Amino acid sequence: MHSLNTVLEEDAKAGLAELLSKLSKRSQELDITPESIVRYGDADTVIQEICRRQTVDLLILGNKGKSALDTLFFGSVSQALVQNIETPTLLIPPKAVFTGWKKMVYAVHLQELRQEGHLRYLQALLAQLGARAETLHIVDLEQPLHTAEQEHHDWLIAGLGAQSAGGRLIYGEDIVETLYRYALSYQPDVLAVASHRYNFFERLLVPGISKQLAGKSTVPLLMLPFQGF
User: How far apart are CA 209 and CA 216, in angstroms?
Assistant: First the structure.
């Protein structure tokens, strides 16, 4: 009798071979050579290990949009990965339709430290794609930006240069819900956010914004590592 592991491995390799075959024409047009890897283990753990051992510019995951009950019993690979993200990660929701990347929205907290690594990454990505980014800042009260916030905002606009589509200030007490409504209204091609690293007790008390967005976003979500790169 065949072992179950052998059957699963053969099935996984056959599925990857079929996928690579479908992508072969487009891969040749882009002058890239796709490769496949079959590994045993928990998906989130194995993916993190591969990203640590190899130079990965972007990790892409399909977000299945599990219900709360499914996530409770079976977990979620995408939500597990964004808790301790170390590699730029793109989460693609089930109903997303790719029409090109022309408009990116970069949601940033102007009261936090400036992330030069994020800015360099976005500059290179936008330049290569021929896209532009609008910076987005959410505040809970309708009041002018403080001096430090305005300086941070101006630094972002100047840093993005030709790739900048200006900045936008919107109001809302719940960051996740406000971003969700914004995405529904304006339908950007991708929403970029910086992940936040919480310690054990903070994770118990404060639901991570990145994790909530991973489960709710209706547009592709680009997660940038907390520490930059």
Answer: 10
